[in-house]
Design brief:
The protein is mainly β. The chain has strands at residues 2-4, 11-14, 18-19, 24-25, 30-39, 42-49, 54-57, 62-64. The strands form 2 sheets. Strands 1, 2, 5, 6, 7 and 8 form a 6-stranded antiparallel β-sheet that branches. A two-stranded antiparallel sheet has the order 3-4. Strand 3 and strand 4 form a beta hairpin.
Length: 66
């Protein structure tokens, strides 16, 4: 497993709704990238959402804000 911190601190926006047992992140919700992980050829991004939830998402499920 490789952790990449190059996008750490960048703001992002959810492109879809995420539902977990603990929380629901609405589409267009914003958050901050914590780090990216490459594990077994799959890239995942850990996002700390403004609602205070943290969730791993795939890169195509979020939009990095400029």
């Amino acid at each position: 497993m490789t952790i990449d911190n190059t996008k750490k601190g960048l703001r992002c926006r959810a492109k879809k709704i995420f539902r977990t047992h603990e929380t629901m992140i609405e589409a267009d919700s914003q958050g901050t990238v914590v780090h990216e992980v490459d594990n077994l050829g799959r890239r995942m991004i850990l996002v700390k959402w403004d609602s205070d939830a943290s969730l791993y998402v795939f890169p195509d499920e979020i939009e990095i804000l400029e």
